[in-house]
Amino acid sequence: MKHSMNQQTRRGRGPARRIGRTLAFVLPVVLVLSGTLAVTRVNWSGNSTDPVLTAADTSVGSPQVAKRAPQDVLRDKLLTELQEEDPGVALTHLQQAVNGRPSLAKHCASIARALGQAAVRVYGPTRAQSYARPVCDTAFATGVAAAHN
Question: Are the CB atoms for 143 and 113 separated by under 8 Å?
Fold first, then answer.
């Protein structure tokens, strides 16, 4: 009798084995169902006043950020860098942003002009002009000249 019990235990037909097999079957089913329910709970259209987050909702914590265009966010960031660092750093980051996101290229000149005008206010016309470089053609230098006149 002892021999038959050892064989039964070795084969793993005990209650732990049955629970493991049940979990191996039930757990994936539960995960798939909960994932499906989570996806159906998201408002994919983005046109809801429901407190459930929409799939494209990036404004969690700051509702003003979602309304601002990427070029406006970039311009404000670069103007802050210009004041905290120098116009050269801001121009380098502008060029990197345009290279990384080509859709910003059409806004490059206006951002560079705004940087040129801000540089004159912070550094004066002569020092601001010393930072000019061919980022977005000559838009930075144009901004410096416009602010100086």
Answer: yes
